[in-house]
Write a structure and sequence with these properties.
With 139 residues, this protein is of the alpha/beta class. The chain contains seven helices and five strands, in the order E-H-H-E-H-H-E-H-H-E-E-H. It has a single domain, classed as 5'-nuclease (Rossmann fold, 3-Layer(aba) Sandwich). It starts with a strand and ends with a helix.
Length: 139
């Protein structure tokens, strides 16, 4: 079973039903739900998604949506070392840096799934779009 870190944009594609990307985001999360894939998110991602969803829905609804998400994915650890690595990295986006450096904390995460592959060019893990990843596992 592949273990993947799911980037914020993929989760937002799902929650906001951003076409045409939401279909692949749904497929990724469905594979997690069926336990054919082990997905991870970060605490920062959960916080950011809460903030963005809260602009369109009430607190209670957003909390329930996040609880449902966390019932099918795990949360990667971010500690002081992770934050320092991110701060000292060449990443232009701090959230992406945090996500990149949290993946090795789980030792089992082998790939980051994101639509913004260019944001992870300085990372150490393989990066794939949801579309490319789904095509690769179907082949």
């Amino acid at each position: 079973m592949d273990k993947i870190l799911i980037d914020t944009n993929v989760i937002l594609d799902f929650f906001f039903d951003r076409k045409p990307f939401s279909e692949n985001a749904s497929k990724i999360l469905s594979l997690c739900e069926k336990k054919k894939l082990k997905g991870f998110v970060t605490p920062v991602m959960v916080s950011n998604v809460y903030y963005l969803l809260r602009k369109t829905a009430g607190h209670k609804k957003v909390i329930e949506s996040l609880k449902q998400l966390l019932s099918i994915v795990d949360v990667a650890i971010i500690n002081k070392a992770t934050v320092l690595e991110a701060l000292n990295s060449n990443f232009k986006d701090f959230e992406d840096a945090l996500q990149n450096f949290s993946a090795p904390n789980e030792k089992e995460i082998k790939i980051i799934i994101t639509r913004n592959t260019k944001d992870y060019t300085t990372g150490s893990l393989p990066i794939m779009t949801p579309e490319a990843y789904l095509k690769a596992i179907e082949a």
